[in-house]
Structures
1.
Amino acid sequence: MSKSKSKNKLTQEHFVAPYDDSVSFDELPDAPPRSKFRFSFTGWLGLIIVCFWVTVAITGPFIAPYGENDLPFPDAYSEFQVPQPGAWLGTDVTDRDILSRLIYGAGRTIGIAFLATTLAYIIGVILGIGAAISNPKVDMVISRINDAILSLPTIMLGLVVVAAIGSSIPVLICTAGVIYASVVFRLARALGQEIMVMDFVEAARVRGEGLWWVITKEIWPNAAMPLMTDFGLRLIYVILFVSSLSFLGLGVQPPQADWGSMVRENLGALQYGTSIIPVIAPAIAIATLTVGINLIVDDVSAYSGGKLSKRL
Amino acid sequence: MAKKTTDHQNNDIVFEAKSLKINAIRDDGSELPIVKGVDFHVRRGEVVALIGESGSGKTTISLASLGYCKPGLTFAGGEALFMGQDVSKMTTDELRPIRGEKVAYLAQSAAATFNPSIRINEQVTEAPILHNTKTKAEADKKALELYHALELPDPEHIGNRYPHQVSGGQLQRLMAAMALCGDPDLLVLDEPTTALDVTTQIEVLKAFKTVIKQQGAAAIYVTHDLAVVAQIADHIVVLYNGEVKEAGPTDVLINSPQHPYTKRLMEAIRPLPEAGQGEESDDTHKRDIPALEVNQIDAGYGKIVNGMPTSLILKDVNVSIKRGKTVGIIGESGCGKSTLARVFAGLLPPANGDILLDGNPLAPSLKQRSREELRKIQFVYQMADTALNPRQRIGDIVGRPLEFYHGLSGKEKTQRVHELLEMVELPSQFAERYPHELSGGQKQRINLARALASDPEVVLCDEVTSALDTIVGANVIELLKRLRRELGVSFVFISHDLSTVASFADEIVVLYAGRVAEQGPTDQVLSPPYHPYTRLLISSVPEPRVGWLEDMTKTKEAISGISGAVDINARGCPFYKRCPHAITGTCDTTPPPRQIDKNNHIIECHLDIKDLL
């Protein structure tokens, strides 16, 4: 730049940068190349937390010091024992080992939530994208039915269903799956509509492509990323939903352990116990898992951008 | 430069960039220079144009005058002096009183700048009231003054309207009012006329020029269009890749450019549309039967009532595209050019009329057409960005028609993809890339390669060069010419840019409000006799000449035609309100007759052809 500066002074008003006739002026790149996906510090933290809980959930029966309903100190029965060697987190209302129940509960809580969310996605995405590409009348009918389900408070709906049919793990999964499918439907339909009007979809239609190609090759690859992001968030809601039902006594039934039901079982510890760990430990487990998933989702959605136009 | 000027002149300088450097921060933390030491200054009452292609850093530099860097960019050296203060080193709190009060920014799209649910006047006066520099009454008074200065229709009441109730050109001018309402010292205009029709562009340029002079503000005008710059700027700074290539007073730069890059920019400006320059394609590929033909087409949107759609866009349009020839379709936005392309493609079945492909009737709707018929007509979109699926590799995008229409696969397909990439002058390695790794011009070439992959007879090009830079667009036109010569493909070339069409088409159709105003061989359309609308279009194409704007706005076509709005539902001639020759009592009540000159030159006008010379 020093060269051109000196010339700048010479010519006063009319400045010409030094040039070389052999240099051609190629088209400049439109935008800087898209950056690779990287986890931030909080993203890594979230990943570590989630990996930890998933490992615990999978290996649960092998690493738990006691069985789900075993008593660590059968000879000295006393509810809400303080943490001590042999029971590192103390014992619960019926003197069972908190740590072991927490480990068994991890598998059940995460497993139920994962299956329910997957079910919600299968129903929601098929109907949502279906509604987006079908004619307005079909779309209208599906959407209004969906709005009706959406307008019901989720916990109330869950309570009614479980109270009517009775509680079991398959019922829990199906109930949560159907309730949350209505939310997924809205998202999938909106995404589908947004992508449907893009020129590349029209180009495929003008080419004469069938519906299956348009859905699987043109729409789905563009909808998959934002739907994945939402999957994480939805999983959190389902964990909280299942835990709430369990807390109210309508979810996972005793003596099976689940984080939500553990909080309820041990509520008495707050009033009468010598330690609050029986209530706090499962609550912390729920909190760390949901926060961990959230941290990962934050990173992914920051990368993929909020709007389709930005992702293109 | 500043060192040699006297103190008095120094005080005049509103903004000065002193070897300003701006870097982009890469993922790994390293920095990539975007602006590499740029010097220029803007004096009070002066308009300085920053000109360059996309990627040259012109917008980044203009934003630096507000002390702003886009996310991912950082000031890396030099100074950005606004009234002697270095805004590049200020904090957001320190900048707040400067932004919006002393420096005003005008973005490209007025439609995106205005809040659609707030009345215009409230938005125009918002900034000075918020900054407490004006009371509501003062701001309203100033706004009214600006509405008058900007020659807006009904200035007393226009502020009470909502943004959707005024035209695009008016909204663009209202944005200028919004920027000027707080009496800023510096106005930054970022491509304010790029998205507008030529006729609207004149109206906006004229208003901007007047109002900047009147208010005595300094302005930085960012654009890629030299012809526009010649009208409005006092001083031009030519940028390429973040460096100043040439800078100087407008007349010096326009009349005797020195730097090879400036010369290239000047060359890329297409010559004015005149008869005789259109490249007449040879008759090698000629056949008697037209490749594609539409007869007496009526088409529109909405419910069909009595056999006609409620919103009728095209009325009685006849176009015949001969093999190996190019038909240009031209008109302002909203005239129905794209609708016509959609009728050809089968996306919009017409209400009346028929479509013939190779002399055989073609089903009006896409769904009823056979794969072979679909293959023969291909569509190239305006926005290369949205026309390519971001999740597919170039090889898959170009390869799919080969697979779909010709049943190619494996090696044969790869081979053909490479041939096609070569045909559009791109290296074959591009087959492995994703669309976002390509520049705008390259994407448009891929778009074209995809259309050519099916061996089409007719390629419909909808504004294919409008979104590209001048030089890149000119290269794409050259490519199209070569392909037409070599492959014998017919093109339908839709554009609002008459000079592009004039250099490429064998035949031109001028559409106005969905009706054909004039139609015929290019040389006939671009020479007298003219339809009054064609004459207005031709004279509205900006010339890279200082003083052109003033000369142009004095012509009678401009006086009567520039700021009028298109009336789609007119009973008589739709151009009646903007026509300098309008005959009251005839033109406003009776649709104009179709007059055919020699050589199939058609003009629809009440005036006799002889009177239109």
2.
Amino acid sequence: MGRYVIRRLLQMIPVFIGTTFIIFAMVHALGDPVAALFGDKAPDPAVAAQIRQQLGLNDPLIVQYGNYMKGIFTGDLGTTFSGQPVTELLKTAYPTTLKLTLVAFTFEVIIGIGLGVISGMRRGKLADTGVMVMTLIVISIPTFVIGYVLQYLFGVKWGIADATVPEGAPIQSLILPGIVLASVSLAYVARLTRTTIAENSKADYVRTAVAKGLPRRRVVTHHLLRNSLIPVITFLGTDLGALMGGALVTERIFNIHGVGYYLYQGILRQNTPTVVGFVTVLVIVFLLANLLVDLLYAVLDPRIRYA
Amino acid sequence: MRGATQAKFAAGAIAIALAATACSSSSSSSSGSGSNANGVVTAWWGDPQNPLIPTDTNEVNGGAVLNMIFDGLQHYNPKTGVAELANAQSITTTDQQHFTITLKPGWKFSDGTPVTAHSYVDAWNWGAYLPHAQNNTDPFFTSIQGYDAVHPASGSATAQTMSGLKVVNDTTFTVALTQKFSLWPDTLGYSAFYPLPQSFFTNQAAWEAHPVGNGPYVIKSWTKGTGMQLTPNSTYSGNYKPKNGGINLKVYTDPNAAYADLQAGNLDIDNGLSNTALKTVQSDLNGRYLNQPAGINQTVAFPLYDPAWNTAGAKLVREGISMAIDRPTITKVIFQSTRTPATDWTSPVLGAEGGYSSTLCGDVCTYNPTKAKQLIQQGGGIPHGQMTISYNADGPHKEWVDAVCNSINNALGNTNACVGKPVGTFADFRNQIQNKQMTSAFRTGWQMDYPLIQDFLQPIFYTNAASNDSHYSNPQFDSMVNQANAASSKSAAVSDFQNAEKLLVTDLPSIPLWYQNGTVGWSSKVSNVSLDVFSVPVYTDITVNK
């Protein structure tokens, strides 16, 4: 197990270098960031040359990348054009997005799996049909529509919730954005859980458990659910990263100053350090979430062993 | 947890009830109901792109703050746009080239240090010095003698200060320009000319983290990327003292989020209304909405460096294209009348006295599809067979570009004559323009730096000027601009500039489309909201209802 984890961690190094380089090159391909600094006016060539020199934009791409990596290992992720260190942005943005993601993730797990179990156990009944129709509707409506509609109803019309998230992003104001962010994944989780529950409820081990006279509750939680959750957990693991990266739309609707906001602004202003810094952390989150999922398999299914 | 939430609901209900009563009392007794001088106004904001140094800020978000924390030699009257003396006691000249500026005594920065002639001269020298790489120096300092030495077009600077600036004593300094520029004193209200305190030069990083100025407000706190709180400056000596207890600027990433907050009562001033919001804003806000012309115009420019566009025939084609655009319908349908069809290359904010004309472009800017088709055919058809209008896709341009193209296509009876051509980001779009990669039309817009006809013509159409994106060059136009700059009176200068502008009607390096209006919506908690000629809310005038 320990060796497995170490091997997986070592595998992250080439992935990390590869992704940072690709992102670095891609932001570069967007064009010259200096022109964007001048608004609607043509840049003064002398000033533009001066800024390029100060930012080291005249070096070949590979040298710039090398300088950037050198900075990373000394904890310097570069600065924005307004002179703010990217590490400072990361420190303000990631806790906010993490909070939002956890709220969304909680909804996704509790409501998604809950609905999936109910409809899987009562296949063909009214509850099942209801869940299937509801999830289909949620999946087919784009997230931003759900977001704006809920924001208008709850925030503006009825005034029950905050229309946008205030400074500091307190948890209670993140409930509405959390539901919006979780909505589509939640529907998928419900459908996935339903299918596996429906399949496994006919399996021999479930019949045996029932025949042993175990209470229904125990059969469902200990025997049926434990085996049915493996594909669901795979989905949830990858989705945790996707939620953090995909919060961009939700963050814009509810004015949350998280990862999506800084990433979007970094792209608009073509600030390479901002974009690369944020994406790099996202990549690490993805990698760790995947590792966690793989380790969870072993916990859930004793047949899976990592040597 | 539950208790807390319920308490919050109760508080919310009380707040709504209070707001409702406040609303009714103010409407019954109009504006005379009095205001709360300590009330704080919450206003829409965006994250500034650059450090808040006057010579480095050229976008609206940073500009809004600079105008609150600084007051320069001149101040543009928020209603008329006319430059009025602020920190300057007098600005005199005998030859339109050498100016003597005297300061009013007793002005202080908010840190208590006095504003002296050095505060101005040092700030300008610092900003113009090339190694400081300030991006707001051209055209503001270019006209001062010695600018070439501190800011050469290539190579490194040979001096640290401009020879044209001389401090006479603490309250007087002189400025020598490279050539005559009759309207120069009127440019001094612009933010690039603001003074800087000694603390900026001793510890720039500390100053940038907490900028100190001499204006009506001081920065109380600033959480970068989230918001800024400003309170009235007790040491301010100018005429624009705040009538409220402070401004709370809140950063929004999406205009629709700000609008939702405005409707929910969490935001008082929203001058970032989106096109979607504008459709319903009148009824949503019960008329608490203002829509007035701003010093911004939109044009479609042509790449005159492309030989196909630089022929006598292409000139007729451009005239035809201009006549094929149905401006009144597009401004009404697409922009909810927040644009006004253009009749010249300036803006109505200048007024007839300042050089605006409602007839200058005449027939060329009037919709006439029959004549348009005829002119385009006469000119040999559209160069390269098809016209594209490039625009940056990260801005709100797709709708009107498509509408303009439709209008042209309808006039020509050809669904493929004109198509929109989106470019991913604004930066990339600017790069293509600067690298002369345009092969067909592209959108251009101009937001004035100061309310002068000079600013609408010289930077855009003078040979090799900073924003001459079409690379238009006409010696006759250049000499007329020079003549205007040497004129001894303002009225003579304005009429000379108008004569130069008339050349644009025949040459058509760009087609005027419309003037942009400034819009602002506000909550029932505030009154006396207005926009200045730059479409920025006049923050100092806003009052909070009792």
